[in-house]
């Protein structure tokens, strides 16, 4: 019998509509608690009880009903948390509101499968053996988060990103360890509440073990924070500056604004250099001029690219007169880490009357103080539909589709093949581009290259001042704890941050909705220079002139290479939970263990009339032996029974 199958005899009578509405309301409540615990609402205590209403609803349901009730809770949680998808589709993609809502609903429904599978599998296990929710629920939920593929990996552990004592266990088990704790706490509360309501024996032992794990987690968190705070104080420091220009997605990269964009980033970098920055970071794809990867130097080669970046718009004056003193004053002599598109021309492609490179890469490059370019790091994980199209090789066989893809420059990006680090003096920098900082698997690859610091360059201008930039940040926090490295995040429109090796955010800017370009303003640099910069908070300065850019600076500890438990074993905790789930679902309680591992001569357990397995009777024990089944003869051989009439014994009258 399958997981969702049921016999007609077991079909329960139809429940009153009022009871169904109450159950649905509790599921909606569970979903609301989940997304309000997440960024940017951040009522994080809700996450510790968010699963209790759902557990109450499904604990007495069939697996099929539990699946759909849990899907409702998951849909509400995901739609409330990912509402910004519809905002992006409507505002930046120009789609109708109905399409944006429907697209968000599809994504929310798919991601709700984590909750749906969790509900069905957990109920199926507990109906067979009353093991309690305290440990079955977290094991199953961790397994579901592990196996369900997502474009942007998402864990409920995100709700605890700012609760540092709790998330320190990420260096042991990653974000799945925090997920386990959240579901374990809710399961223990539910087990205690259910036993109290039914007036049965309280599951004291399970609750005590869960409480012990919570105490261990908090104690471990404070110990690790204290240990690594001491290491941070002893580690060598580098002053790193970050540029956040706050340019909108429709303005950034336009041909008529390219030189003004370069001039603004150049001026912000000069401001950071005057404040003592030893390394300056530009966000993803902020350099308006692509870098050519070809040896024949078609396009802008390394030398001219370095000159253009360090001198800004003054580079043309330098080419005319390299000895001009006033041009040399505008050079940036501080190393620059920049996000840029790089082109491999090859034989080239002709399209729309012009020449286009064969391959495009989303890259990061480090320019030294002498103007030398490092080896390029290419983004390995591309965004679906934005940087690559699924089944592009197959779809491009159709001529009309291929022409549309090429004209719209869709799926032209080529993914990188390996993790690389940039050498920076005695230290090494681990670059990450876009959403790569939320991918634990890429963090494992990058940490194996022994960097002293992670630097993430991102363009979140697609999302504006929504919850997405803060959710992105919350997921990135776990990389710093998993590998005990600090992270610097340079984001085009925020939130740019400095995170230390314990997950503490030391410097941060807000996420903004970029203001449109004022009429008559061709180059914002003179206005920004004239307005100057005002200190907003520690390590953050902002100009009051459009586009109101930010600059950040912080002394970052260059942490020595450390191999944490998570770096050594990876996802072992998640795979262990999956194995336990499969054992409980397939073997435990079905008698298969006795069938597969019985000794020779042992009997095989047989089901009784109700389908329950009975242990076989030992051969030597006749007292417990079953009586032989009665022999049934055909109806034709049966002798008719005599009808006996009992005579009533009449007592004599006395």
Can you describe what's shown?
By secondary structure, the protein is of the alpha/beta class. The chain has 3 domains: 17-231 and 573-587, no CATH class; 236-380 and 415-559, Nitrilase/N-carbamoyl-D-aminoacid amidohydrolase; 592-629, no CATH class. The chain is 41% helix and 13% strand. The chain contains 23 helices and 19 strands. Strands 1, 2, 3, 4, 7, 8, 15, 16 and 17 form a 9-stranded mixed beta sheet that branches. A hairpin with a 5-residue loop joins strand 13 (497-499) and strand 14. Helix 7 (133-147) runs antiparallel to helix 10 and helix 10 runs antiparallel to helix 11 (204-234). It is globular. The protein starts with 16 loop residues before the first helix and ends in a 40-residue tail after the last strand. The model is unreliable at 596-602 and 620-625 (pLDDT under 50).
